[in-house]
Design a protein that fits this description.
The protein is mostly helical. 78% of the residues lie in helices and 0% in strands.
Length: 299
């Protein structure tokens, strides 16, 4: 695989880890409050990064870039987690992942406005196909309504879209590892306002809930955000990476079946297949058409 295409591997790893995060978040919210869970999850991630930097030298950000790291921490971890965790108490994991699958569209539109990133007609068609798949999955559940939980999840999607663009900006001048770690650290510092209640809850938490926290903090947060930042850094456009988020509802449904014995119905399978087709069109169809065109030209 060419170096410029390596982002696919990092993006797929991230999406698998985040999809598992939807399931484990739902399980953890049976015990922890939304605000406490947000702090505890990223406190664990921050601690794991502290241990990590003992082996790799991480430079302190330039003082001129601190404001961008703080903003990344705010939108990517502080506000996003508040909005996401509150919204997640209203909907099951699969539906939550469906709503947040609007993030690629929002990110693409913002990147088009802010960074002037251009997309070909095929990519726009692919996004429509993917969003159609998400729509089919959404209709399955039949529980959509304009309520507080839905609004919180929409706010979370917008917040994460802004975070993606900030990551794009920061990785242009800072190493991807530095961007991930300091963004999470600043986000965790902001989340510390919920630390007192979190300590009270974790003291009497069952062992299984602690295990959920560790999985969320290390795998669905620390590792996942590292691979996500690397993917954004390596890709030519932000939308090439965020487009993979359309897969989260499908993977979350599969993990829900494996971890919670939730059997997906026919419409879920159809919606997932449509999403995969859209993903294929977005990432590979232009290259295939271009390759066929070159062969004809050579012939």
């Amino acid at each position: 695989m060419k170096s410029k295409d390596n982002f696919h591997i990092f993006a797929i790893i991230t999406i698998i880890l985040w999809s598992s995060g939807f399931v484990f978040t739902r399980l953890a919210l049976r015990y922890f409050s939304p605000l406490s869970l947000g702090f505890l999850r990223y406190f664990i991630a921050s601690i794991s990064f502290i241990l990590f930097v003992f082996f790799i030298k991480i430079k302190i950000p330039n003082k001129n870039d601190i404001k961008w790291f703080v903003l990344a921490g705010f939108f990517g971890f502080f506000f996003y987690n508040i909005a996401y965790n509150i919204g997640a108490t209203t909907f099951p994991a699969s539906t939550t992942s469906l709503i947040l699958a609007t993030t690629p569209v929002i990110t693409t539109l913002l990147a088009r406005i802010i960074y002037k990133e251009k997309l070909g007609k095929i990519k726009y068609i692919a996004i429509i196909i993917e969003f159609t798949g998400v729509g089919i999955l959404t209709l399955i559940n039949g529980i959509f309504a304009i309520n507080t939980g839905l609004l919180w999840l929409i706010f979370a999607s917008i917040s994460f879209s802004i975070y993606n663009l900030l990551q794009r900006k920061l990785t242009k001048k800072c190493p991807a590892l530095q961007v991930s770690i300091f963004s999470i650290w600043f986000g965790t510092i902001l989340l510390m306002i919920f630390m007192p209640a979190s300590i009270t809850e974790v003291k009497i938490a069952p062992l299984m809930q602690i295990i959920y926290l560790i999985i969320l903090g290390i795998f669905a947060s620390a590792i996942a955000y590292l691979t996500w930042t690397y993917a954004i850094n390596k890709a030519q456009t932000t939308s090439s990476v965020t487009n993979y988020m359309f897969l989260t509802p499908f993977i979350t449904t599969i993990l829900g079946f494996l971890l919670a014995n939730e059997i997906p119905d026919f419409a879920t399978i159809v919606g997932g297949i449509i999403i995969v087709i859209g993903m294929f069109f977005y990432n590979f169809l232009e290259k295939i058409i271009s390759g066929i065109g070159k062969k004809k030209y050579v012939a």
